[in-house]
């Protein structure tokens, strides 16, 4: 129990490890749009947020579950999925008039090559300007899921029983993890095609 009169109880979200208020204040003072990346046990969420004194305003966002409609049959929380989600969010941000932003990964540890930075890479490739160091970004082979494909192929050759056990859900849907890199490229192309199509329709509608 605190006995000092100077003891101050921390804000609840700070006690729960959800919000770093000093960091939030710095982001608020910057006056720039925040690219907020969050992850759960199943999905990745990317939001572009305008910080205001009265609260945050979400300008646009993307949710990794969305990539399934483009034909993505794999996990929606891995590095390739995070990249694709960041790419979609980045395109939407640009269409909303956002040209630059600053990254906000909250209280997650800053780990080189993580899913959080894969989402950042997606937004960068979409055309946004976001301050960063190239050293923190995942390598292209990891963005495309080649490490997953190589591991799956190696596991299948060395221990087929374990392979079937680990990838049983994929097998039920006739999905091969060894083909994740090829699927990534196809899905990315579909995303780009749909974005171009939607922009064309928007221009035709405004003319």
What do these coordinates show?
The protein is α+β, with helices and mostly antiparallel strands and 207 residues long. The chain has one domain (13-144, 185-197): Nucleotidyltransferase, domain 5, CATH 3.30.420. The chain has helices spanning 12-15, 21-30, 79-95, 115-126, 140-143, 146-158, 160-166, 168-172, 180-206; strands at 34-39, 44-52, 55-63, 102-104. A four-stranded mixed beta sheet has the order 3-2-1-4. The longest helix has 27 residues, at 180-206.
In CATH, the architecture is: 2-Layer Sandwich
Largest sheet: 4 strands, mixed
Distance between the termini: 68 Å
Indicate the radius of gyration in whole angstroms.
Answer: 20 Å
- Main structural class: alpha+beta
Count of individual helical segments: 9
Helix content: 40-55%
Mean pLDDT: 87
Shape: globular
